[in-house]
Specification:
Order of helices and strands of chain B: HHEEHHHHHHHHHHHH
Radius of gyration of chain A: 24 Å
CATH superfamily of the largest domain in chain A: P-loop containing nucleotide triphosphate hydrolases
CATH topology of chain B: MetI-like fold
CATH topology of the largest domain in chain A: Rossmann fold
Distance between the termini of chain A: 25 Å
Oligomer: heterotrimer
Strand order of the largest sheet of chain B: 1-2
Distance between the termini of chain B: 49 Å
Order of helices and strands of chain A: EEEHEEEHHHEHEHEEHHEEEEEEEEEEEH
Chains: A alpha+beta (about 375), B mainly alpha (about 300), C mainly alpha (about 280)
C-alpha cells in the first residue's frame, strides 16, 4: 500500500458574503486512503472539494496536496480528478472526448489516449457508449462517464462529490459494491462526499463529519458508530436511529449508573465525573434485547409495534415512564409481538452526552489515553 | 515523496495571470473603448457652461449656467420641449395600443400567426432613416400612392409632412410603422409566457372574456408593457432619424425635437453652447427614465433566465 | 378560445389583413417602384400593370445615371461598400471586445462589475448627439475625421452593450461546474474559455453579432455627424442621393431596396433570436 501525504487541509476557512461556510477545517487524507465526507446539505462539503480542486480559494488556512502548498497553484496543475454531483459532462463532446480530456490536456498521443480511455471505460462498463453524446446517455451512464473522466488521468487526488446521488437505487447499490474495489486499485487519496450514512460506512476507511462548516468528528466507521462525538452525529448514523434517553447519572460508590425505570444501567467507570449532571444516554437498538422477566437489570416495557426490516426486526416499546425505545434483533429470532415484556441492556456500548452542549462525555481513562497519545 | 514523482510538474516558469486580475483584464479593452466615449460626454458638459459659437471663436468664454437660464425665457426651447413630449406621448401611446392589439390577435401559436409575426419584423429591421425616405416617396404630391389614396376620401392636395398642421402626424405615422412591431413582439412573447391556469379557471367560472382581459391578462402582462413602453419612450424622446430624414425639423420649427434642434443649433447656427445645454437637458430626462427602465428590465431578465 | 363565433373569426381575419397590409405595403410598393421607369411611376392613377425594368439597378451598379440633363455620376455603390465595411468592422471589434468582457461579467463577481455593466448599458440610452458633437471637434484634432476607424469606434456605442448583455446571458446559462471540470482535467482558463464557454455560447454570440450588424447598418446619426462624404454609409448616402438625383424616383427606390435588403434578409434568417436580442435578453422568444 502506498502511503505519503495526500490531501492536507490546515485550518481552512471560507466565507461567502459575510457568511462563514467553512470554519477552520483541518483534515489529512494520506495516499491510498478513502475518507467519506458526510454531512447534511449546506454543511459545506461541496465548497470543501472545490477548495481542494482550486476552483475557489480559501480566505484563510492552507491546502496542501502531495506535501506541496497549493496557494498559488491553479486547478489545472493540481493533479486532481473530480467527479461532480451533477456530472458536469461537456455537452458538446462525446463520452470518449469527455473521458479523454485529462489525457488530452497532458498531450498524450492519440494511441495512448485511446488506450487510457478504453481501459477505464471497460472497468466502468461503458466502453459500448463511448461514441455517444452526453444527452444520449442514461443517468447511470452519465454518472459512470463522469467517474471515468475523473479516473482517466490516474490522479493521486480523487474528489468524488456525491456521485451516486443522482442515480437510481439499483445502480447505487451496485456501485456501492464496486467502488471500494475501484478506489483500492487507484491508491489515490480520495475524498468521497455523501449524504447517505450507509454509503459513508461502506466506502470510507474513515469518515469525516461536517456540520455547518465545522468538522465535528473524524474517525473510522466503528468510531463514528460506537463513539459519536455529538448527539447530532449519533442521530445521523444508524438505522433504526439510536435511543436517546434523558438521565442523570448516579453512583453507588463503585461505579456510575443511569437509572432507567427503577433498574440501573451500569456505565463506564471512567464516567464518574458525569454524576449529577443532566445527560442524555445513547443506546443503539442492537444493544437492547428482550429477556425473560426477572432477569437482573431488566426493564419492564409494553410492546407497541413491530417492523420487520430485511435482516433485522425493529420493535417499538414503551417504558413505564412513557419513554419510547427501539429494540433491534436479527430477523427470525423470537421476540414478543405485543403486551408486556422485559428489555435487557448491554451498556458496554452506551454513550453519554452532555444534555446542554450535546457533546459526548468521554470516559476518563479514554481521555487520559488520548492525551498520552497526543503527547507521544 | 512518492507524489512529487507521480505528478508531472516540471518547474517551468511562465507568466501566470492571477485569478483575481483575470476578470479585469478580460473587460479592460471594452472599458477603455467606453472611457474614450465618456471623455466627450465630459466635454459636452463643459461646452454647455460656455458661451461658444464656432463662428465667433474670439467670444468664447465661460458663462456658467447662462445657457440654461436663457431657456426659461426662450420660446423656441419651450417649443422643443413641447414637440418632443407630444411626439413621445403620441408615438408610445398609439404603438402600445396597436402593439397590444396585434399581439392579442397573434397570441395563438398557429403557423399563420407565426409567419405574420415574423413578417411584421421587417419594418423594425428597416433603417428608420430609409423608412422615412420610403414614406416620403409614398406621400409625394406628384405620384405618391398615399396622396392618391387620400384624394379618394376627399383630401385633395393633402400636403403630409410639408404642411405644418399635418407634419407631426405624418412622422408619427412613420414612427408607428417602424416601431409598433417592437412592442408587438415583446408583448407577444409576454402573452405566450403567461400561465394558462388563471384563464381556464376564469372560463370555468363563466367570467366574460373582456372582464378576464382587464382582470387577469393586463395585470399579468404589466411588467412587459411597462418595459416595452419605457424602452420606446427612451428612444422616442430622442428621435432624430425619422424626423431629420423626412423634414429636417420643418416646416418652420414644427418638428424641432431635442436632438434635431441641437443638431441644427450646432451645424447651422454654430451655437455649440446652446446645443450642448439642450442635449444635457435631454440626457437628464432620459437618465431618469432609463433608471426606471433598467429596474423593470432586470426583473424581466431574471424571470426569463429562471424559466429554463 | 374554443367558442369563437363566425363573426369573430371574420373580424379577426379582417383585422389581421389590415395589419399585414399596413406593415407590408410600403416595402412592396417600394420594390415595385424600383422596377419602373420614371414615366410609369409618374403615371396617375398608379397601376400595378407595368413592364418591369432593371434600368434603375443598372444605373446604380454602373454608377452612371444617363438623363436628359446629361450624365450624372452616382456614388451609391461606394455607400453600400462603406456600410458593409463599417458594419462588419464594428461587429468584429465589438465581438472581440465584448465577448471576453461578457464572460468576465458572467463568471466573476468582481468589484464594480455590475456598475461597469450598467454604465455600458446606459450608453445605449444616452442621446447620441451628446457624445457625437464634441467628437466632431476632437476627430479633427486626432485625425480621425476622415477614417473608418473613428466611425467604427463610435459604433461601439450601439454594438458593445448589445453584445455584452446578450452574450453574458448565454454564458450565465452554462453551468460553472462544466468549466470547472475542464480546468480540473488540466486545462488553462484560456483553453476552457476557448473549448467550453465559446462553443456552448455560440448561438448567443451569433445572434448578438447579427443584431449588432443590423443596428450598425441601420444607424444614421453617427455617420451623418461624423462621416466625410466618401465614408458615408447607405443611410446617409440615400438621403444625399434624393437631393442629388432630383426626380429620378426609380433609382431612389432601387437604392432604398438595395439598402434595406441586407438587414431584412439577416432579420429573416436570425428571426429566432430577434426577440431576445431586441429586448437585450429581457424576454425569451
Amino acid at each position: 500500500m502506498m502511503t505519503g501525504p495526500g490531501i492536507e487541509l490546515v485550518d481552512v476557512t471560507k466565507r461567502f458574503k459575510g457568511q462563514t461556510v467553512l470554519d477552520g477545517v483541518s483534515l489529512a487524507v494520506p495516499q491510498g486512503e478513502t475518507v467519506a465526507l458526510f454531512g447534511p446539505s449546506g454543511a459545506g462539503k461541496t465548497v470543501l472539494l472545490r477548495l481542494i480542486a482550486g476552483v475557489i480559494e480559501p480566505d484563510a488556512g492552507q491546502v496542501r496536496l502531495g506535501g506541496r502548498d497549493m496557494a498559488a497553484v491553479p486547478p489545472e496543475d493540481r493533479g486532481v480528478g473530480m467527479a461532480f454531483q451533477n456530472f458536469a459532462l461537456f455537452p458538446h463532446r462525446s463520452a470518449f472526448e469527455n473521458i479523454a480530456s485529462p489525457l488530452e490536456a497532458r498531450r498524450h498521443s492519440a494511441g495512448a489516449m485511446r488506450a487510457g480511455v478504453e481501459t477505464v471505460a471497460r472497468m466502468l462498463k461503458i466502453d459500448h457508449v463511448l461514441g455517444h453524446a452526453p444527452r444520449a446517455l442514461s443517468n447511470g451512464q452519465k454518472q459512470r462517464t463522469a467517474l471515468a473522466r475523473a479516473l482517466a488521468g490516474r490522479p493521486k487526488i480523487l474528489l468524488l462529490d456525491d456521485p451516486l446521488c443522482n442515480v437510481d437505487a439499483k445502480l447505487r447499490f451496485e456501485m456501492r459494491l464496486e467502488l471500494p474495489r475501484l478506489l483500492a486499485e487507484e491508491q489515490a487519496a480520495t475524498l468521497y462526499v455523501t449524504q447517505d450514512y450507509r454509503e459513508a460506512m461502506a466506502l470510507g476507511d474513515r469518515i469525516a463529519i461536517l456540520d455547518r462548516g465545522r468538522l465535528v468528528q473524524i474517525g473510522t466507521p466503528a468510531d463514528i458508530y460506537f463513539a459519536p462525538a455529538t448527539i447530532q452525529v449519533a442521530r445521523l448514523f444508524g438505522d433504526p436511529t439510536i435511543n436517546l434517553l434523558d438521565v442523570i447519572p448516579e453512583t453507588d460508590g463503585r461505579r456510575p449508573f443511569a437509572r432507567l425505570s427503577d433498574t440501573r444501567a451500569p456505565l463506564d467507570t471512567g464516567l464518574v465525573h458525569a454524576v449529577g449532571r443532566p445527560c442524555v444516554l445513547g443506546l443503539r437498538p442492537e444493544a437492547l434485547r428482550f429477556v425473560a422477566a426477572g432477569t437482573a437489570g431488566a426493564v419492564p416495557v409494553t410492546v407497541e409495534a413491530e417492523t420487520p426490516l430485511n435482516e433485522k426486526t425493529v420493535t417499538l416499546a414503551v417504558t413505564k415512564r412513557g419513554r419510547e425505545i427501539l429494540v433491534s434483533r436479527p430477523s427470525g429470532t423470537p421476540g414478543p409481538v405485543d403486551g408486556p415484556a422485559h428489555v435487557g441492556i448491554d451498556a458496554s456500548h452506551a454513550v453519554l452526552f452532555d444534555r446542554s452542549s450535546g457533546d459526548r462525555i468521554v470516559p476518563k481513562a479514554d481521555a487520559d489515553a488520548h492525551k498520552r497519545g497526543a503527547a507521544a | 515523496m512518492p507524489l512529487a514523482a507521480a505528478v508531472p510538474a516540471p518547474p517551468r516558469r511562465r507568466f501566470r495571470i492571477g485569478p483575481r486580475l483575470l476578470p479585469y483584464l478580460l473587460s479592460l479593452p471594452a472599458l477603455l473603448v467606453c472611457i474614450g466615449i465618456l471623455i466627450p460626454f465630459g466635454t459636452a458638459i463643459y461646452y454647455s457652461l460656455q458661451r461658444y459659437r464656432l463662428s465667433q471663436p474670439w467670444a468664447r468664454s465661460m458663462n456658467w449656467g447662462e445657457n440654461y437660464i436663457n431657456f426659461l425665457s426662450d420660446p423656441s426651447f419651450w417649443n422643443t420641449l413641447q414637440v418632443s413630449l407630444t411626439y413621445t406621448v403620441l408615438t408610445v401611446g398609439l404603438e402600445l395600443v396597436l402593439g397590444l392589439g396585434i399581439a392579442l390577435l397573434l397570441q395563438k401559436r398557429t403557423l399563420l400567426n407565426n409567419v405574420i409575426s415574423v413578417t411584421l419584423l421587417l419594418p423594425l429591421m428597416t433603417a428608420p432613416a430609409l423608412a422615412a425616405l420610403m414614406w416620403k416617396l409614398m406621400t409625394n404630391p406628384n405620384f405618391g400612392v398615399l396622396s392618391y389614396l387620400v384624394g379618394f376620401v376627399g383630401f385633395e392636395d393633402f400636403r403630409w409632412a410639408s404642411d405644418p398642421s399635418t407634419a407631426l402626424l405624418t412622422v408619427v405615422l412613420v414612427d408607428i410603422w417602424v416601431y409598433t412591431p417592437f412592442i408587438m413582439i415583446l408583448l407577444l412573447a409576454g402573452l405566450r409566457s403567461l400561465p394558462t391556469q388563471p384563464f381556464e379557471a376564469a372560463a370555468l367560472d363563466g367570467v366574460p372574456r373582456f372582464v378576464a382581459f382587464f382582470r387577469i391578462t393586463l395585470p399579468m402582462l404589466m411588467p412587459y408593457i411597462l418595459t416595452a413602453a419605457l424602452f420606446r419612450m427612451l428612444e422616442s424622446i430622442q428621435q432624430f432619424d425619422i424626423i431629420y430624414a423626412m423634414t429636417q425639423g420643418g416646416p418652420g420649427d414644427t418638428l424641432t425635437v431635442f436632438q434635431v434642434e441641437a443638431y441644427l443649433n450646432f451645424f447651422q447656427s454654430t451655437n455649440v453652447g446652446r446645443s450642448a445645454a439642450l442635449l444635457l437637458i435631454l440626457w437628464a430626462i432620459t437618465f431618469f427614465f432609463s433608471n426606471l427602465f433598467i429596474k423593470n428590465w432586470l426583473r424581466l431578465r431574471e424571470r426569463a433566465r429562471g424559466e429554463h | 378560445m374554443e367558442h369563437e363565433s363566425r363573426l369573430e373569426r371574420w373580424l379577426r381575419g379582417i383585422a389581421l389583413a389590415l395589419v399585414v397590409t399596413f406593415f407590408m405595403f410600403p416595402i412592396v410598393w417600394i420594390v415595385l417602384m424600383s422596377f419602373q421607369t420614371n414615366e410609369t411611376i409618374l403615371r396617375m392613377p398608379p397601376s400595378l400593370l407595368f413592364t418591369p425594368t432593371l434600368s434603375n439597378y443598372e444605373a446604380l451598379i454602373t454608377g452612371r445615371l444617363v438623363s436628359n440633363a446629361g450624365v450624372l455620376e452616382i456614388e451609391f455603390m461606394s455607400n453600400l461598400m462603406n456600410s458593409a465595411i463599417l458594419s462588419v468592422g464594428s461587429v468584429t471589434i465589438a465581438l472581440l471586445l465584448g465577448v471576453p468582457a461578457a464572460y468576465a461579467f458572467a463568471r466573476h463577481q468582481f468589484r464594480g462589475s455590475e456598475d461597469i455593466a450598467f454604465t455600458l448599458l446606459s450608453f445605449r440610452f444616452a442621446p447620441p448627439l451628446l457624445v457625437l458633437l464634441p467628437l466632431t471637434l476632437y476627430f479633427q484634432e486626432l485625425g480621425l475625421a476622415d477614417t473608418y476607424v473613428g466611425l467604427i469606434w463610435v459604433y461601439q456605442l450601439i454594438c458593445l452593450p448589445l453584445i455584452l448583455w446578450i452574450v453574458r446571458g448565454y454564458f450565465e446559462d452554462i453551468s460553472p461546474d462544466v468549466e470547472y471540470a475542464y480546468r480540473i482535467s488540466g486545462h488553462s482558463w484560456w483553453a476552457t474559455f476557448r473549448d467550453i464557454a465559446l462553443p456552448l455560447a455560440r448561438p448567443g454570440i451569433a445572434a448578438a453579432g447579427l443584431l449588432a450588424f443590423i443596428f450598425a447598418w441601420n444607424n444614421f446619426i453617427f455617420a451623418l455627424v461624423l462621416a466625410s462624404a466618401d465614408k458615408q454609409p447607405v443611410t446617409v448616402g440615400a438621403l444625399a442621393f434624393v437631393t442629388a438625383s432630383g426626380i429620378q424616383y426609380g433609382q431612389i427606390a432601387a437604392a432604398i431596396v438595395l439598402s434595406i435588403a441586407p438587414t431584412l434578409a439577416l432579420a429573416l434568417y436570425a428571426q429566432r433570436y430577434l426577440v431576445e436580442g431586441l429586448s437585450l435578453g429581457a424576454v425569451k422568444g
